[in-house]
């Protein structure tokens, strides 16, 4: 049985030192824990970055300077072997919480508590973090700051909670049989989606989902509860506004215990017939970067947390949400 404890300890120590570091010391922390060829993938405007110093300067220094006394509040912590290529990964999901004391990405500070939902996949190689995929919900921060960057969400605009069972922090070894069962279930669910062209019927969804499933969507879309409301408040608008959706595969896909997660770069390619996210039709192919995290309950899935790089998806259509926000604030 693979032992992920050393990799988990490495990432936990990294998080502890990162949280304790001042903004000007972040680079030295990253250099201690990452490889010389460290590669970072992040949501727009971060995108792809090479090297620990560049990641510190572009991502962590500005964030930690904006959110003073920032804490990482984890809801899921897990590790496993990527079913795509056999590499080892450690994943953390939760919220960053801080005091929004300085502007961030052009979003005006509020001086109040702010939550930044995030999920982070770290590939471990030779005792170092060699690659990271960092998805955070910038739209959620904008909403909390009182801005309205997008039309009204089809789901509920909330700060998505962690697992109902409060067992997502898997610091210890998990039963490999449970991990295998979870991975098999999420892969079966994906096969059903692809068979139905990503618009599964109620009957198809019920094969792998509990009727009272919860779908915790990103800012701009929102959360929804039960299969019926999921179809009404997300799947319906998604299918009505997007056409010719192609699944490109995942870069990472694994499970530990009752939890699973995957991400792609990009996962999906599509065209827009208009209406989704309030945008008109677009003449061109669009890419969508997505993370899904899952909790299995028995033989079916119960909860799903989704991160979509909405800023990148809209940027491809000529809509620069961050720049538009800066102009509004300046006005």
How many individual helices? 9
Gyration radius (Cα, Å) is 19 Å
Question: Ends: how far apart?
Answer: 59 Å
Spatial strand arrangement across the major sheet: 2-1-6-5-4-3
Q: How many domains make up the 3D coordinates?
A: 2
Order of helices and strands: HHEEHEEEEHHHEEHEEEEEEEHH
Question: How can the largest sheet be summarized?
Answer: 6 strands, mixed
Shape: globular
How much strand? Answer: 35-45%
Spans where pLDDT lies below 50 across 5 or more residues: none
Number of strands: 15
The helix content is 25-40%
Give the helix/strand layout.
Elements: H1 5-20, H2 26-33, E1 34-42, E2 47-50, H3 52-66, E3 67-81, E4 88-100, E5 113-125, E6 128-136, H4 138-144, H5 176-195, H6 202-205, E7 209-216, E8 223-225, H7 227-241, E9 242-247, E10 252-256, E11 259-263, E12 268-272, E13 282-288, E14 290-297, E15 300-308, H8 310-315, H9 321-330
Parallel strand pairs: 1-6, 7-15
Antiparallel strand pairs: 1-2, 3-4, 4-5, 5-6, 7-8, 9-12, 10-11, 11-14, 12-13, 14-15
Helix pairs in contact: 1-2, 2-3
């Amino acid at each position: 049985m693979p032992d992920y404890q050393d990799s988990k300890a490495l990432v936990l120590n990294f998080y502890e030192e990162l949280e304790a570091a001042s903004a000007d010391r972040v680079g030295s922390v990253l250099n201690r824990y990452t490889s010389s060829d460290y590669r970072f993938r992040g949501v727009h405007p971060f995108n792809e970055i090479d090297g620990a110093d560049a990641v510190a300067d572009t991502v962590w220094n500005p964030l930690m300077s904006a959110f003073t006394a920032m804490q990482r509040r984890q809801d899921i912590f897990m590790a496993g072997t990527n079913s795509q290529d056999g590499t080892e990964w450690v994943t953390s999901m939760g919220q960053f919480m801080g005091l929004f004391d300085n502007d961030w990405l052009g979003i005006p500070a509020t001086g109040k508590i702010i939550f930044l939902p995030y999920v982070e996949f770290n590939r471990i190689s030779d005792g170092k973090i060699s690659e990271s995929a960092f998805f955070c919900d910038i739209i959620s921060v904008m909403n909390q700051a009182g801005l309205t960057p997008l039309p009204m969400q089809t789901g509920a605009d909330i700060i998505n909670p962690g697992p109902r069972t409060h067992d997502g922090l898997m610091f210890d070894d998990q039963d490999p049989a449970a991990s295998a069962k979870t991975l098999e279930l999420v892969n079966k669910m994906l096969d059903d989606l692809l068979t139905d062209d990503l618009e599964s019927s109620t009957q198809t969804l019920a094969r792998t989902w509990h009727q009272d499933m919860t779908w915790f969507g990103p800012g701009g879309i929102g959360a929804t509860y039960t299969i019926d409301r999921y179809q009404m408040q997300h799947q319906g608008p998604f299918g009505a506004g997007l056409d010719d959706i192609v699944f490109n595969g995942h870069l990472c896909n694994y499970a530990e215990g009752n939890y699973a997660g995957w991400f792609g770069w990009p996962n999906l390619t599509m065209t827009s017939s208009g209406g989704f996210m309030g945008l008109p039709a677009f003449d061109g192919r669009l890419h969508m970067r997505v993370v899904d995290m899952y909790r299995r309950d028995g033989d079916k899935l119960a909860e799903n947390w989704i991160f979509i790089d909405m800023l990148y998806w809209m940027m491809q259509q000529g809509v620069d949400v961050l720049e538009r926000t800066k102009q509004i604030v300046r006005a």
